[in-house]
Design the sequence.
């Protein structure tokens, strides 16, 4: 069963840099889905590793600006990121120890997509509104284009 994300206006935060990073996150999740559909367990695991690293980089960017600008819901937002990290770490550990079968692969993909959509539409939109209302800027950052580059961040 194919589950993928299509970018649409409901996912826009109105902050260009955050939206750009979210679009890239979606691209990675859709690559995981494609690897799953090809029954490429190695591809799914590699994409899951990349997604985990990318999430850490992206969340770090968000949290940097939350701290810098004194975002009042910083702790709540960061707690959601932390829970996501913990869940992805468990998934990666399970995948390393037991491998990835189709049921597990699809459950990983569903979790990641569902979590991202809810997070963008909830906490990220609140943060973006805070930025826009206060005329605060998130600087452009070059998106990492490989797992190796993320390893260095």
Sequence:
């Amino acid at each position: 069963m194919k589950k993928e994300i299509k970018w649409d206006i409901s996912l826009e935060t109105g902050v260009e840099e955050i939206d750009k990073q979210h679009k890239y996150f979606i691209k990675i999740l859709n690559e995981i889905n494609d690897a799953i559909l090809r029954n490429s367990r190695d591809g799914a695991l590699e994409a899951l590793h990349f997604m985990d690293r990318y999430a850490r980089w992206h969340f770090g960017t968000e949290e940097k600006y939350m701290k810098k600008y004194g975002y009042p819901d910083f702790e709540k937002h960061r707690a959601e990121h932390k829970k996501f990290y913990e869940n992805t770490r468990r998934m990666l550990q399970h995948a390393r120890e037991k491998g990835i079968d189709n049921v597990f692969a699809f459950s990983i993909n569903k979790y990641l997509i569902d979590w991202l959509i809810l997070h963008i539409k909830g906490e990220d939109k609140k943060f973006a509104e805070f930025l826009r209302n206060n005329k605060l800027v998130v600087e452009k950052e070059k998106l990492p284009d490989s797992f190796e580059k993320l390893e260095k961040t």
Residues 14 and 103 are 36 Å apart (CA to CA). The mean pLDDT is 85. The longest helix spans residues 102-133. The helical segments are 16-37, 41-69, 74-98, 102-133, 147-151.
